[in-house]
Structures are given as structure tokens and as C-alpha cells.
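Saturday, quiet lab. Running sequence design on the C-alpha cells for the scaffold JK sent over.
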């Protein structure tokens, strides 16, 4: 496996000359380094150019004409490596905040996974020399990403990661919308949504000793909003998204049920019980079609509507209704409630959850691509 370590730099002259030899002392001969430098005015590129003679055909410099941000620099580095048939690509900071001692472990894991994340937020990982406020911002940035994207990755925002060629091809570099550090979140989320196998290994992250951080308050604020754009760009609903759609569909079905019942019973004086049964079938059929076409569309891909799935959906709806009634009755009988509507609301929620679980796991079970 040929591996390319990509280090992006801008004004890292105090670090890069010491960092590169240290990395080369740890990595094997099938691992090369590409420094992507955005024409640093302090001469960072010149230092790398001088060092390249000591590591022929292993150390490369890619000088970009202007500073366009983290995302553009890494994307350029990935494309450079892809065009030269590298098999895996490791992101590595040029300021000693990433310790090279973790590279061998990560290289071992990438042999059996599509993505390997150097994680600060799993057991054994951590951060040194950061202020409390910066730790809180970073930690909650990852938690915020987990919540918004409904994704179990613990360290979303870290930049010490390896992607194999297959993962990058699935992600699609031309579709990247991030401009700065949110790239780390976008790459991982798109890899997750593409079905890539992801492994997090613990690392200790150390704050830079020389130079200044490139992260500004504006960058952090931007990251709060870019998560939603990333989610929309991927176009894949989380389980929570599907539940909300399912609930809205159920609400629409309730309106249909009540409207038909009102017209048939209150206006035209039909008998309530047969009309109620008819309403159940009509509203249930409506809900099945909408859930098929909307709520669970990504699960079933191009699968057609079927009588079998329709029947299963109605059975799930009936079970949900029974759960609804059971919870309501139990609460009314055994609890002292200020109003009985609380019991009905809890019953509706319980029935809705059961119905959703049956629909997601059985009726609209996710199909393999």
C-alpha cells in the first residue's frame, strides 16, 4: 500500500524544518510526504524545497499561488495523490499538534478500514496545553456535529485522519462545499453516509509551540451553520429526520380520517363503526404511500409499492393503535392525572414510536445498494 501524508502549510517556517525529518524517522519507505503550501511569505516552501534533496522521490512540494483555505488546500493535495496512484491519504498538521508516533498504528488500521480517525474524544485520547474555553468549544463542536448529522463519530472536527482511495472516490472531492476547517466534518460525514468502514483510534493532541493558530472566531461561527448545508448537500435523512416525516405523515392521515368520518357520519348519517373501519383503511393507505414516496424513500431506493408491504404497514398501524389505547388506559387507571388528555398524548406517542419502529425495520427495511 502506497501512502501519502499531506501536510498543508501557511507560515510554518518555525515548525516544518523540524517536523518533516521527525516524521520520516517513524514512517516506512512506502510512505511519502506532500507539503501543500499556499505561497507562505515567511519562506516555508523554500525550507521544504531544500529538504527534498535529502528525501528524493519521497518529499514533494505543491505550491499554490494564493491562500484559499484549508478545504481547497487538502482537496488539491488529495487530487495530486489520486492522480499518482496512491492508495491512502493521511492528513497531518504542520505545527507538531499531531504526534508522528501515532502514524504506524493508523497505517495498520487503514489496511482493514476505509477511514481511520485520530480521535481525541474516545478512551485513551485527549488534549494537552489548551485553555478550558478552547477545549469546550472543540468538544461541543464535535457533539453539535453528532447531533445535527445524527452520526456516531466521536471526533468530527479533528484533522488527523486517513482516507483510502475508495473512501475519497465515494466522497467525491468535486462535491465538497466546505471552505475551511469544516472540511473535516464534511469528509467524515460523507464517508459515513457512503457506507465506508470507519475506525477511531486514540491520540493525544498537543497545542502548537511555535507560530499562531489559523482558526478565528468567524471560522467557528461559520462551522455552526455549515453543518446544515453539509447535511442538505449529502441529501440523506437521519433516523430522527425520518421520524419527523413519519409523524407529519401520521398527522396528515389523522386529518384525512377525521374529514371522511365527519362527512360520512355527521353529514350523511352513515353508521359510525363501519365508517371508522373504512377511515382506518383509507388513511392507512394514504400514509403507506406517503411514507413509501417520502419518509423512507432512501431506504427502499426504487422499490415499487406492493400489497404485501401495504398489509404489513396496516398491521403495524393497528398494533400502534392498540399500544396507544393500552398506555392510555393504564395511565388513567393507575395514575392521578390533572387531565386525562395527558394519558391520551402519551398513548399516541407510544403508538407512534412502535409504528415507526415496525415501519423502519420491517415494512421499509433499508435495501443494500
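Result came back. Writing it out in full:
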Amino acid at each position: 500500500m502506497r501512502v501519502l501524508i499531506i501536510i498543508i502549510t501557511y507560515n510554518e517556517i518555525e515548525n516544518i524544518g523540524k517536523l518533516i525529518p521527525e516524521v520520516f524517522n517513524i514512517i516506512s519507505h512506502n510512505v511519502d510526504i506532500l507539503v501543500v503550501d499556499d505561497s507562505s511569505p515567511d519562506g516555508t516552501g523554500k525550507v521544504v524545497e531544500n529538504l527534498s534533496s535529502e528525501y528524493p522521490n519521497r518529499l514533494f512540494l505543491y505550491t499554490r499561488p494564493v491562500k484559499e483555505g484549508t478545504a481547497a488546500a487538502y482537496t488539491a493535495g488529495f487530487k495530486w495523490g489520486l492522480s499518482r496512484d496512491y492508495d491512502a491519504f493521511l492528513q497531518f498538521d504542520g505545527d507538531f499538534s499531531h504526534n508522528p508516533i501515532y502514524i504506524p498504528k493508523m497505517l495498520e488500521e487503514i489496511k482493514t478500514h476505509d477511514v481511520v480517525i485520530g480521535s481525541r474524544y474516545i478512551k485513551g485520547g485527549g488534549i494537552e496545553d489548551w485553555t478550558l474555553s478552547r477545549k469546550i468549544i472543540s468538544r461541543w463542536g464535535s457533539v453539535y456535529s453528532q447531533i445535527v448529522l445524527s452520526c456516531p463519530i466521536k471526533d468530527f472536527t479533528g484533522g488527523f485522519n486517513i482516507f483510502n482511495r475508495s473512501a475519497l472516490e465515494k466522497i467525491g472531492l468535486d462535491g465538497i462545499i466546505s471552505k475551511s476547517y469544516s472540511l473535516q466534518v464534511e469528509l467524515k460525514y460523507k464517508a459515513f453516509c457512503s457506507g465506508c468502514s470507519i475506525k477511531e483510534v486514540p491520540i493525544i493532541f498537543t497545542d502548537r509551540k511555535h507560530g499562531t493558530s489559523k482558526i478565528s472566531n468567524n471560522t467557528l461561527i461559520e462551522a455552526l451553520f455549515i453543518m446544515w448545508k453539509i447535511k442538505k448537500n449529502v441529501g440523506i435523512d437521519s433516523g430522527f429526520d425520518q421520524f419527523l416525516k413519519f409523524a407529519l405523515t401520521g398527522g396528515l392521515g389523522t386529518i384525512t380520517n377525521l374529514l371522511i368520518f365527519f362527512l360520512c357520519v355527521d353529514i350523511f348519517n352513515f353508521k359510525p363503526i363501519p365508517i371508522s373501519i373504512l377511515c382506518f383503511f383509507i388513511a392507512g393507505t394514504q400514509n403507506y404511500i406517503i411514507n413509501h414516496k417520502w419518509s423512507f424513500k432512501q431506504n427502499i431506493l426504487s422499490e415499487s409499492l406492493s400489497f404485501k408491504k401495504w398489509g404489513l404497514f396496516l398491521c403495524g398501524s393497528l398494533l400502534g393503535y392498540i399500544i396507544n389505547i393500552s398506555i392510555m388506559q393504564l395511565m388513567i387507571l393507575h395514575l392521578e392525572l390533572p387531565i386525562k388528555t395527558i394519558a391520551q398524548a402519551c398513548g399516541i406517542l407510544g403508538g407512534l414510536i412502535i409504528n415507526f419502529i415496525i415501519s423502519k425495520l420491517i415494512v421499509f427495511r433499508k435495501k443494500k445498494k
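Notes for JK: Residues 239-363 form one domain. Residues 239-267 form the longest helix (29 residues). Ask whether to fix the surface positions before the next round.
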